[in-house]
Amino acid sequence: MNKELIDLRKKNIDQLNAELISERESQFSLRIKHKTGQLNETSELKKVRRKIAMIKTVINEIKRKDKE
């Protein structure tokens, strides 16, 4: 399993939401840099998008466990 995913699963929902906000801000700044031609590593956009998806998945897993 991915080390990053294991670290995310150890956190609670508040910490995950804070990290999600941070990643969204990072994604926004990367998109702005990409549109203005200042971004050299375009693969960063994909990495951030996948990290956001991982965080959302873990949040949903935690919410499902709480409902059961």
List keywords for this structure.
3 helices, mainly alpha
What report would you give on this structure?
This protein has 68 residues and is an all-alpha fold. 82% of the residues lie in helices and 0% in strands. The protein contains three helices and no strands. It has helices at residues 3-9, 13-36, 43-67. Helix 2 (13-36) packs antiparallel against helix 3 (43-67). The relative contact order is 0.17.
* Oligomeric state as shown: single chain
Total helices: the number is 3
- Give the low-confidence spans: none
Give the structural class: mainly alpha
Helix content: over 70%
Query: Roughly what is the average pLDDT, rounded to an integer?
Result: 94
- Strand-residue fraction? under 5%
Overall outline: elongated
Number of strands: 0
- Indicate the radius of gyration in whole angstroms: 14 Å
Strand count, sense and barrel status of the largest sheet are: none
What is the chain-wise order of helices and strands? HHH
Distance between the termini: 25 Å
Summarize the helices and strands and which ones pair or pack.
Blueprint lengths: L2 H7 L3 H24 L6 H25 L1
Helix pairs in contact: 2-3
Concise structural overview:
The protein is elongated, with a radius of gyration of 14 Å. The protein has helices at 3-9, 13-36, 43-67. It is built from three helices and no strands.
